[in-house]
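To whoever is covering the structure queue this week,

Two jobs came back overnight. Logging them here so there's a record in the thread.

Job A:
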Amino acid sequence: MSRRLGLVAMALSLALLGGGRVAAHEVRPVFLDILETGPGRYDATWRVPVTNGMAPPVTPRLPADCITGGGLPQTGGGATVSRISLSCPGGLAGRTIVLDGLSRTMIDGLVRLQFASGEMATRLVHPARPTFTAPAASGPLDVLRTYVTLGIEHILTGYDHLLFVLALVLFVKRLRPLLLTASAFTVAHSITLSLAALGVIHVPPSLMEALIALSILMLAVELARAIDDPGRAAGLSPAGLAFAFGLLHGLGFASALSKIGLPAHEIPLSLLGFNLGVEIGQVAFILALLAGGYLARRLGPPRRRLAYRACTYAIGSLAAFWTIERVLAF
């Protein structure tokens, strides 16, 4: 039995390690930010994320009659940034911008156009349709919808956050305490996400990433101890644990949001939208786990116990790997 358990845990760990190295916190779209400075004149910033020293080959293609100018791209903060000046006769309203090369990637594009009046149009552009048609203007719901989508994408592709939520579900088991624990996690990461996004607090991203991995490892250790000694779990407050570590995970969400950027005139709304998106994705993941747990009841106690052990050791193995990797990256 122990040999089978080891093989299962190893398989799960290797599968997660294969995707976990690059996927944690990856919701970094290419970003075209355009500011209207006068009739037909714009200043634009083009930002492309750099992963493992490489940037995706995506470039914005503007209307043919637009005259562009700008300096050389600069790399820093995990992205390559280009400053572009535009002169477009008649303006950009109703015109189409194409993100060339996006269809050959697995990332999204974010295009934001701020008019001289202060109104703003924000769109999330997908690889299947890499175009943005500039409207005359857009309302607050446009910004809210875009950042809700970004929040959902972030939580569902942030494997370290999902692994922590999985560990919480395994640790709590019962529905009512689970709801309380999930609520505590939500309140906590909402606090630090808001404070960090507004610039009130700042933690170096490398330190934050390492501490998040360590929080998963610590929870996995408690899970492993509770297998043979269930009374240990009774002495811990899952809600308190979730709140404490949720403060840390909120900094991770804020780090991703800072790379996306917040519209200057819609900061509260975009922050609310991103937070709502994170919660929608988190609730969807918990519901999927509960459905899986319901199906697992048919396995019988011995197989359920084996599956629980395998998941626990897989979570701990991956968290240990992340912790070491991120500490060495300091």
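Job B:
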Amino acid sequence: MITGPSGVGKGTLIAELRRSIPELALAVSATTRPPRAGERDGVDYYFLSAPEFQARVQAGEFAEHVDYAGCSYGTLRSELDGKAAAGGAVVLEIEVQGARVLRGALPRATQIFIAPPSFAELRARLDGRGTDDPEKIERRLEVAQEEMAARSEFEHVVVNDHLPRALAELQGIVRSRLPAMLEQ
């Protein structure tokens, strides 16, 4: 499980990690937020309407689901089961709340928290992304403060202060855990 506040670079790090370690499969999350430019349904997220998301919650299709900054996010059981059945190690890009929920269900999972170098840098990244209005950015930053306080709950913390350095650290953690991840 890889988690951290919005805008910290989880998606970028995971994409680079998967390029360097092809044994890793990504469990694609579902969300009710609209797609950002370049995002594809079923690849980056499963983009669901709020009623469809709730229907799937009611049907028990999610291993975990949370509300985050005004949108719903969740991990579909079918994503976890399908990727695990294929025999690969599964990477989850997940919100802190979701990681807490899944700890009980996946006690052997490697838990990695991606942290920004500073709160000011996180704000600059969210502003620079240009995908959210100022109100949504403020909501994401409020949540981020709570999430950053939770970093000590995770067995590994990687500070994304310089992408190549952070990626090397993340690769080291994953490579050291890969044999155990493939056994799960």
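Note for Job B: The longest strand covers residues 62-68.

Please reply-all if you pick these up so we don't duplicate work.
Q.
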